[in-house]
Amino acid sequence: MDQANLVIVGGGVVGCAIARALSASWSDVFLLEALPKLGMGASSRNSGVIHSGIYYPPGSLKARHCVRGNQLTHEFCAAHGVPHRNTGKIVVASSPSESSTLHALMKNGCANGVEGLRLINRGEIRKREPHVEGYEAIEVPSTSIVSSEDLVKAYARIAADRGANIVTHARVERLESTGDGVRVTSSAGEIDARCLVNSAGLFADEVAGMLGSPMAQHRIYPVRGEYCEAVRGKQHLIRGLVYPLPHADGLSLGMHLTKTIAGSMLIGPTAHYVRDKNDYERDRQPVEDFAAGAKTLLPEIEASDLVLAYSGIRAKLVPPADPAGKHPAHAGIADFIIQRDPDFPRVVQLMGIESPGLTSAPSIAEQVRDLVAEVLS
Questions:
Q1: Per-residue b/e over 185-197, b at no fewer than 16 CB within 10 Å?
Q2: What are 2-12's pLDDT values in tens digits?
Q3: Tens of pLDDT along 102-116?
């Protein structure tokens, strides 16, 4: 049986960033990924945006890690040749009735330490994005786009170069506390680890449940986000990143317009709860819904300009409304959970790592490194 200092469960962008951080300080680091390749889940099924940190409640882990992660991700991409482009973005109020909400969002971003924010009027919106309609907008210069797939690969490559063992086709099947560590049984074999990091994304609650941890009560509710792509002749309609105001219920940042690294134009994501954490395709929304949702910002867009693209699934900690339409008392933006397990102190649990997880990954990795140091000291 293999012996290890550390086992990380989950090979998404956060797991790979953690592997990179931990392998700089400890040997015998194992990362176990259930799927055939790294980052096949939410890590590569998203908008590929390096977020600024304007949306999240001041003092929250999401705010802290997004703002810090924005800086670290830009530095990492520049240092390691990860394709990215600093486009900035605009968050648009479509009418005067939305102005107060837009101004409150800007105030929130400033409170989080996001630099360079400024309000622009309709003329400045049109100068920046000639085909976009809006009354007023926040210009956010620190936002960028990135090749999320290449980012995952780069984190994993550096971890492997430092001696970490990156194992795919390694679905965790059983976890057993051994007093001085955790015995991990996966489809790739058994490992006795002095410390376990649960970075299993959508399945983090199930991994916690395998251990018998009360933290499994932090149930993850899958929310699917779907995308459409503009046909080639309409890709010029957007130059960078254009966002509406976020959903008031905190479910998503709204269906936005993205010019990708490859030069294509995406509309999405949508946001709706699904029962199955692997349900990426059943009952996809028609392109007409995307066109209707985008027309406020982009009046020229038509359903005939769009084709269905990919979808992703977010790991939400907030449950859906009940059948009567009543939302739970704690609805809204749920914060990341990143802590040592109170019942299993050799385990570090990461729960509800949704957006802005891609941006936050290297900053989350710093926090996890400090928690692991407490375990292994």
A1: ebebeebbbbbbb
A2: 789 999 999 99
A3: 999 999 999 999 999
Of 23, 37, 16, 42, nearest in space to 361 by CA: 16
Task: Give span(s): CATH 3.50.50.60, the chain.
Answer: 2-45+149-220+331-376
Q: What class, spelled out in words, does domain 89-141+221-316 have in CATH?
A: alpha beta
Strands (E), the chain: 2-9, 29-32, 49-50, 84-85, 89-93, 118-121, 136-140, 144-146, 165-167, 172-177, 182-186, 189-198, 221-230, 241-244, 256-259, 265-268, 272-273, 306-316, 337-340, 347-351
CA–CA separation, 151 and 50 (whole Å) = 11
Instruction: Enumerate the β-bridge partners of residue 268.
Output: 256
| 89-93/136-140 β-pairing | antiparallel
Query: What does DSSP say about strands 221-230 and 306-316: parallel, antiparallel, or unpaired?
Result: antiparallel
Determine the topology of domain 2-45+149-220+331-376 in CATH.
FAD/NAD(P)-binding domain (3.50.50)
- Tokens coding 233: 């002749």
pTM exceeding 0.85 = yes
